[in-house]
Design goal:
Blueprint lengths: L3 E5 L2 H23 L2 E5 L3 H10 L9 E5 L1 E3 L9 H8 L2 H4 L2 E2 L8 H10 L7 E4 L24 E3 L8 E4 L1 H5 L4 E5 L5 H8 L15 E6 H4 L1
Parallel strand pairs: 1-10, 2-3, 2-6, 3-5, 6-9, 9-10
Antiparallel strand pairs: 4-8, 7-8
């Protein structure tokens, strides 16, 4: 993977820069084809990114926000990515959110339904990076890593929950991927990501345009 890398001082600077990148991508996509299809992951730094986006010039009525992944848990579960997404985004953006249907009685069928509503290619996918090299809910050793015939799938249990996640086909069709990586515990995983190491799940993301925004502790 040949990805552009920007290294900033700390997590706050990363969140601010990432917000600028997202806002610019939104304006570009809306100018090109009338809407911005954006898929987002969870994590603390992304919520800070969304806080900053709230004050930027974005035509939220033309933004559609999809989830990269979500734990299968009740709507009021504090660990749900959707909970933080609603809290972080401005009110004008919330009508554009397309939540993953993780409370459905049949998660596999629900995942297939969610996949039917995805765009042919996302304008931008935001991804994080775990210390173990996972991204989205694509974790080491999970059978979902081998899924190539579906854009959305259900994982094995991870940290107490099964998850609904975008799979590699959906990730790799994205027009652009934005990695947001912070913290010293990500240093090894980030080095492996930059090397295109397919031995970690993140290293198998092969979208043509990728930008990594990392803080100094993560970049080493």
């Amino acid at each position: 993977m040949a990805a552009e890398l920007e290294v900033l001082a700390d997590a706050d600077a990363v969140a601010a820069r990432a917000a600028v990148v997202v806002a610019a991508a939104a304006r570009e996509a809306i100018a090109a084809h009338g809407r911005f299809a954006f898929a987002v992951s969870g994590g603390r730094t992304p919520w800070a990114m969304f806080d900053r986006l709230a004050g930027m010039d974005v035509a939220w009525d033309r933004v559609v926000i999809f989830q990269v992944d979500e734990r299968i848990a009740p709507d009021d579960d504090p660990g749900r990515n959707l909970t933080h997404l609603h809290r972080s985004l401005p009110a004008a953006a919330r009508d554009g959110i397309r939540p993953m249907p993780v409370t459905a009685a049949d998660p596999v069928r629900a995942a297939a339904g969610y996949a039917r509503g995805l765009p042919p290619a996302f304008d931008l996918i935001h991804l994080g990076l775990g210390p173990d090299g996972h991204t989205a809910s694509l974790v080491p050793g999970d059978p979902v890593l081998a899924v190539t015939d579906r854009d959305v799938a259900i994982t094995a249990p991870y940290q107490g929950h099964r998850r609904m996640t975008l799979t590699y086909p959906a990730l790799n069709r994205a027009r652009r991927v934005l990695w947001v990586v912070t913290g010293p515990d990500k240093r090894d995983a980030l080095a492996r990501l930059r090397a295109g190491d397919a031995g970690i799940p993140a290293g198998r993301v092969t979208a043509a345009r990728q930008l990594i925004i990392a803080d100094r502790p993560a970049a080493g």
